[in-house]
């Protein structure tokens, strides 16, 4: 993950910038005060805000809770859950009310926003005290500082690969595609609206703004383009135009996607794939466990993203952060340290089938020999371009949403591909300039 090709544009942006919660499951009495942390039966209570109980079910998450509490019997971990689509806004409202959880799970796209707003604390003093082996193991693009300070320990990580329905492809005598050309031809053969069968779910909804990392950014990289370069938006290039035109052709010309692309997002995409009537899905390693939970009988596989001019994909994940207004930061840090460790990540990933960020954990046979997860390991090691951008965008959620809106403008013929990308780039660059000036 530290290869120069994966983070060149990001490092440039970081240098420029450096120069310059869901509803709690606890009752009211458990909140305590900043000077007197809440306790129950002599144990300090800490609240962890996340969205995975909703996706994974409580049993797997409780395995992690039990392991942590066994290691730290003086701490009680309370898991607060909210659907991912609501999580960002809930964090903002809880912070505004002065009632945040102790630990905030932040999608990469939220880190800079929460840091600039003072919602989360820098954690450099904690990281600096970790053993060198631990620090080296979590080194990489998701751990780089924002404006000279580090804010989160990565616990989920992954790039985007191609999921496919084995049954549908076998019935059509089609092999998983390896190039854009093969992907287009396979998509056309696999689409039959009369049978409610499509190659892809058309999903480019603006909220939550995560869909572009799955549906659009990888195409730009595969076309030979970049998302960011030298601290500026770089997607409004001939390669970016080529990528958007290819994406639009799938939806509008060849009609291989489900209808209603402007109102569908990740939830709809995953539901359609699990129902067995959609052949392909762009998804991260977290999607393996999600699909197995949604439909245990679904026969699906995972292969690398199709190659355009080059191979390329987006990497992203989530980090654990300390809430600035949290009630017990020392105990909360112990949980973050546990989850970021090789031991904690292996436990977490075995329970959830997620993909690790810790480089020691990534070498474990659990990932190296798993037919699904090995694909993501191989992409990290072999792809021409892998970009991590979310953790280093000022107001990343807003920038991604604006980019999505411009793609929608292109899909609805309000703008050309070049106009849409130019307008999105101008919006992004204003945000970069404003952030650099602070």
Automatic annotation (TrEMBL):
Keywords: Signal, Transport. SUPFAM superfamilies: Periplasmic binding protein-like II. Pfam families: SBP_bac_1. Residues 1-26 form the signal peptide. Belongs to the bacterial solute-binding protein 1 family. It comes from the Bacteria. This is ABC transporter substrate-binding protein.
């Amino acid at each position: 993950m530290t290869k120069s090709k994966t983070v060149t544009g990001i490092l440039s942006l970081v240098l420029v910038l450096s120069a310059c919660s869901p509803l709690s499951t606890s009752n009211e009495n458990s909140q305590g005060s900043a000077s007197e942390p809440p306790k129950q039966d002599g144990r300090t209570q800490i609240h962890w805000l996340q969205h995975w109980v909703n996706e994974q079910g409580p049993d797997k998450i409780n395995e992690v809770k039990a392991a942590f509490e066994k290691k730290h019997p003086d701490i009680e971990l309370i898991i607060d859950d909210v659907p991912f689509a609501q999580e960002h806004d809930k964090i903002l409202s809880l912070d505004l009310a002065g009632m945040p959880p102790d630990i905030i799970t932040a999608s990469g796209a939220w880190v800079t926003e929460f840091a600039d707003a003072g919602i989360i604390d820098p954690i450099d003093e904690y990281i600096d005290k970790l053993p060198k082996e631990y620090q080296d193991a979590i080194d990489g693009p998701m751990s780089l500082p924002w404006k000279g300070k580090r804010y989160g320990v990565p616990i989920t990580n992954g790039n985007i690969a191609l999921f496919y329905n084995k049954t549908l492809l076998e019935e059509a005598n089609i092999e998983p595609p390896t190039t854009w050309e093969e992907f287009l031809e396979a998509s056309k053969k696999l689409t039959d609206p009369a049978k409610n069968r499509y190659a892809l779910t058309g999903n480019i909804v603006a909220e939550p703004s995560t869909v572009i990392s799955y549906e659009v950014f990888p195409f730009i990289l595969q076309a030979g383009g970049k998302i960011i370069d030298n601290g500026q938006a770089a997607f409004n290039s001939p390669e970016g135009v080529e990528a958007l035109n290819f994406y639009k052709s799938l939806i509008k010309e060849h009609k291989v996607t489900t209808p209603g692309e402007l109102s569908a997002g990740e939830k709809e995409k995953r539901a359609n794939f699990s129902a067995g009537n959609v052949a392909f899905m762009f998804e991260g390693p977290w999607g393996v466990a999600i699909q197995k939970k949604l439909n245990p009988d679904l026969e699906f596989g995972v292969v690398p993203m199709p190659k355009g001019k080059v191979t390329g994909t987006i990497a992203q994940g989530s980090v654990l952060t300390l809430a600035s207004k949290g009630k017990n930061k020392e105990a909360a840090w112990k949980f973050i340290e546990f989850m970021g460790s090789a031991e904690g990540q292996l436990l977490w990933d075995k329970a959830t089938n997620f993909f690790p960020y810790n480089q020691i954990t990534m070498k474990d046979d659990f990932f190296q020999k798993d037919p699904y997860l090995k694909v993501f390991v191989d992409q990290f090691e072999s792809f021409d371009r892998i970009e991590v951008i979310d953790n280093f965008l000022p107001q990343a959620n807003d920038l991604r949403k604006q980019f999505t809106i411009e793609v929608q403008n292109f899909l609805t013929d309000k703008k050309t591909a070049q106009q849409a990308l130019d307008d999105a780039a101008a919006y992004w660059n204003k945000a970069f300039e404003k952030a650099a000036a602070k």
